[in-house]
Amino acid sequence: MDPEMTGDGETAGAAASRPRSSSGGRHPAVVVLGELRPLVDPDEGRLPHAEGCERIRAQGGIVYLPHPCESLRRSALDPAAQVAIMADVDIIEVFNSRVTLPGDNAKALRLAQASGKLHGAGSDAHTAGEIGNAYVEMPAFTDQDDFLACLAQGRVVGRLASPLVHLHTVWQKLRKRWRRTKDE
Fold first, then answer.
1. What total of structural domains would you count in the chain?
2. Between the CA of residue 118 and those of 20, 30, 152, 166, what are the distances in Å?
3. Of 61, 81, 97, 131, which is the most exposed, with the fewest CB atoms less than 10 Å away?
4. Burial (0-12, 13-18, 19+ Cβ within 10 Å), 55
5. C-alpha angle with apex 156: 16 to 133, nearest 5 degrees?
6. What CATH number should be reported for the domain holding residue 88?
7. Which residues, listed in sequence order, are joined to residue 45 by a DSSP beta bridge?
8. What sign for the dihedral angle of Cα 175, 93, 88, 59?
9. pLDDT digits 0-9 by tens, 115-135
């Protein structure tokens, strides 16, 4: 089973990368969402959080809640939205290497412990140098159920990125916005 990745709040990357079964159809694996904000369906636009969770489940996926307590990120789910979907969440990210305030990771760990959810970690890499800043060391696994069992035995490992990495992200957003206005 290979993890599938997608960009922040979008499903297109995962759908395109999903391996084909012997019958030619696509089969689900693990979808690691960049953000569990309303998912973007190319045909429908943004989906409500609960519907996003339902669609992940319907495809046999695992619901992962990234950086749930990050106080400075606009895309982080507010506590009320977290409570509304918590029954559908399998994994809570307890260490994100890009958080600006380290205490936010501690809050996420307490949330995962209080809700009995498995622990995840994410580099949230926006640059090549950030890849691998956070991960979970765990035994090898063979399928989705085994993945969850092995994750329960895992050990979160991570180091915080410099707060200066956010300057790169701001620069990329400004460049993208400038290119869009230039092309219009």
1. 1
2. 29, 15, 6, 28
3. 131
4. middle
5. 65
6. 3.20.20
7. 41
8. positive
9. 999 999 988 877 777 788 899
